[in-house]
Write a structure and sequence with these properties.
Largest sheet: 6 strands, parallel
Low-confidence stretches: 140-144
Structural class: alpha/beta
Order of helices and strands: EHEHEHEHEHE
Radius of gyration: 14 Å
Distance between the termini: 34 Å
Number of domains: 1
Strand order of the largest sheet: 2-1-3-4-5-6
Strand content: 15-25%
Oligomer: single chain
Length: 144
């Protein structure tokens, strides 16, 4: 079976490593491709037009090109019109939640503190379970 792809755009090395491990635990049929900021992500996508991730996860606070700016660029690209784009951030600021919803993100996932919680969250997202837009795991459960 061909590997499914999650494209993670995040400038924090530790967060990328934790995400990759949780992804492997959540579903072994997925692999993680990483970019360290929005600019690098867009350059990769421009160079490799055949690259078609199944999910895209974007951190909000990154150098060079913010997560919101990156989201805007991705939503303009017809290759990703059916690709769920999930904001993956430490922010729980209501303005960020509303702005990214308006820009077309599929979910707003507040980065959970633990590996098990993140693994469970990714399992639900990858299985395309019906979930609310705002996913906050500070209480280790999904809030509606």
């Amino acid at each position: 079976m061909e590997k499914q792809i999650c494209f993670l755009i995040d400038d924090d090395e530790d967060d990328r490593e934790i995400f990759t491990m949780a992804l492997e635990n959540a579903n072994e049929s997925y692999t993680c491709v990483e970019a360290i900021n929005g600019r690098e992500a867009l350059e990769l996508l421009a160079k490799d037009t055949a690259f078609s991730p199944n999910f895209i996860f974007i951190d909000l606070n990154m150098p060079y090109l913010s997560g919101k700016e990156c989201l805007q660029h991705l939503k303009k690209d017809s290759r990703f019109s059916n690709t769920p784009i999930i904001i993956y951030t430490t922010s729980s600021y209501s303005k960020d939640v509303e702005e990214t919803r308006h820009l077309g993100a599929a979910h707003f996932l507040v980065k959970p503190a633990g590996m098990t919680v993140l693994t469970n969250a990714l399992t639900k997202v990858l299985n395309k379970e019906p979930l609310p837009y705002y996913l906050d795991y500070s209480e280790t459960t999904i809030t509606q």
